[in-house]
From TrEMBL:
Occurrences of domain Sulfotransferase (ranges): 44-276
Any one GO MF annotation of this record: sulfotransferase activity
Pfam families in UniProt: Sulfotransfer_1
Stated family: Belongs to the sulfotransferase 1 family.
Protein name (record): Sulfotransferase 6B1-like
Keyword tRNA-binding in annotation: no
The keyword Transferase appears for this protein: yes
Organism: Octopus sinensis
Amino acid sequence: MPKVYYKDPAGCQLLSYDYNGFLVPSFPNVQENLDKLPDMPVRDDDVFLLGYFKAGCHWMWEIAGMLVNGSAEYNPEHKSVAMMELMDQDQLDQLPSPRVLNSHLFLHHLPKEIFTKKPKMILMTRNPRDVTVSAYHHTFQLKLLYQYDGDWNGFFELFFDGKLNYGSWFEYMLQWEKDINDHPELPILIVKYEDLKKDLVGNVAKVAEFLGLPKNDQLFKDIADKCTFDKMKAAKPPHTESFRTPGESFFRNGVVGDWKNWFTVSQYERFQVECDKFDKQSTLFSTKY
């Protein structure tokens, strides 16, 4: 799989791999994993968690895992153990049921059996401005994976041009909209990050109903309590071996609207032009928050 190094205006490069025109992280064996993924067996109780990176998938992985296991207990593992583009098929096969498999891939990359077994799928969405900021910190911190030493201004240009892992946010979401419209038979629940922040208990109950789980108000409250951002960050150990800054983790600050502390006026105006174009094309998603 060819390596792709895109450079920001300051000359700082960001590493991706090109998988048939789709940019993916430089995970070990990522091509082999992606090549084998369409033939991976799907279990009847599998749940698929999907979405652009930094859309809240770590958060929902904990919530969904607690729901399917019927217990408000944190998973001692990290969601990477069930990430389909990262782990090989033998490792995924060894995961106990029910599995909450996760990925930032498109529908056509996923196991073909999803079209016959129709497992429940959750698609996370988030304000793309906050996604951009979160993606910058994620990319900068994971130096060994992305090899990026640039600053916010440089990363903004790469994100704006879609020259990073999983490509343009705008194109990514429009592709998912097409996939959803083309396959109305597939059970896909769209969950907004911002809705989780507004009403965590209510949205935990909504996800449980979608998954066909029995109503259990006390469990939903307990899960919501355990899955507040601060408690999750404290409970999940930092990945000191992976991050540039000791003590950092995949849970940074979880604030809605943090983009206002990062975007310049010019960046906001340029980004808004793309948001306006997107909102004219999309009926499922919106950049208006």
